[in-house]
Amino acid sequence: MKYLMLLLFFLFNSQAVKALDSSVSQAGEYAKAAMMELASDPPLIMLQNEEGKSRHELALGYMKLKSDDNDVTLSGGVKATEKGSAKGYGFGYGYSHSFKDKWAFVSWLQAVTVEKGNHDQFVNGRLSARAIDFDSLNINLALGVSYEFFRENDKHVLNVFGGPSFMYLDFHSDIETYSTDSPYALSSSLDFFFSKFIPAAMAGFMYEYRFFEDWIIAPYSIGVISLVDKCQPWEADRVSVNTGGVNGSSPECAASNTASRGEIDIAPSFITVGVKFNYKPWDLGFNISSVIRNAILRPEEERKAEIETVLFSLSKDWGDY
Questions:
Q1: In this structure, are residues 244 and 17 in contact, taking their beta carbons and an 8 Å threshold?
Q2: Using an 8 Å Cβ cutoff, are 193 and 172 in contact?
Q3: Per-residue pLDDT tens for 205-248?
Q4: Among 18, 49, 127, 300, which is most buried by a count of CB atoms within 10 Å?
Q5: Which residue has the higher pLDDT, 146 or 120?
């Protein structure tokens, strides 16, 4: 998991201090977007559950995150411009085994690495913060059971599933912040670290429709509920602060009143949608659901810049299903 756990933690002039909480919140949106995108591209599970049958799927993917918003409203009414990007590569493996007619065990493991991400924030046209050489590792493990809820003529199948989910996020970035008052100068620099295991529960459905005999289209929806508090701690070393004190926490979290640590709104609960395609003669599939999500899932608050995440994956499946 839209990656760049970026940015903007310590703005030390009068306008920037007002913008600080919103900047911290915006930074968390990158990490949450990446985790949500990874969890939103599960393998195509075995939908026609018949006792003794199994299905495997291996997927390779490419992820791109981008923010380019010229009208972000920070706290205090300050207007900011957000520009950033990162890219990554990942894989996924899914396994389904039907232990009883209509019932199956389902699991998938996904991972993606992102590197060389960069992000800038501008206030009143002047650079206020920068994240440099961001790198991240996202892992998602899901375990559960599925139930074949409906089938008609082996052409229409509706399957529901659910179980525990375990997400892990580890990232690092060099961060620099700047005074936007005159004289324009570096306010702080630091190494920023975050590493957290996030347990969750997931549930959803997949619907399979076979058309032209050889093609499968499978729309789906998944809901994830985090089992830990949404506010999680971060820390930094090599901290250099030239002026002022800061609150390094998101506005929804407990104030830290320090530049070297804080809490950030990072453990997401969310609902997502998607659609997978599979060509049965070759047992090959692809997923471009991020295009759909970018069109219908928008930021909840005006002060958060819109982050566009694109995840494209190709998959190969096998088994006796």
A1: yes
A2: yes
A3: 999 888 888 899 999 999 999 998 888 887 766 666 554 455 55
A4: 49
A5: 146
205 alpha-carbon distance from chain centroid: 20
Q: pTM of the prediction?
A: 0.82
* DSSP one-letter code for 133: E
Q: Is 47 helix (H, G, I), strand (E, B) or coil?
A: coil
Contact of 139 with 39, CB cutoff 8 Å: no
**R_g of the chain computed on alpha carbons:** 22
Residue 26: how many other CB atoms lie within 10 Å:
30
Is the pLDDT score of 42 beyond 60? yes
- Residue 162's nearest CA partner among 218, 201, 200 is 201
pLDDT of residue 139: 93
Q: Which two tokens stand for residue 45?
A: 């599970």
In whole angstroms, give the CA distance from residue 170 to residue 223.
23
Query: What's the one-letter identity of residue 129?
Result: A
Question: What pLDDT was estimated at residue 253?
Answer: 75
Looking at the DSSP assignment, which residues form a beta bridge with residue 118?
A: 85
Q: What is the pLDDT of residue 70?
A: 77
* C-alpha to C-alpha distance for 24 and 26, rounded to whole angstroms: 5
What CA–CA distance (Å, rounded) separates 30 from 16? 20
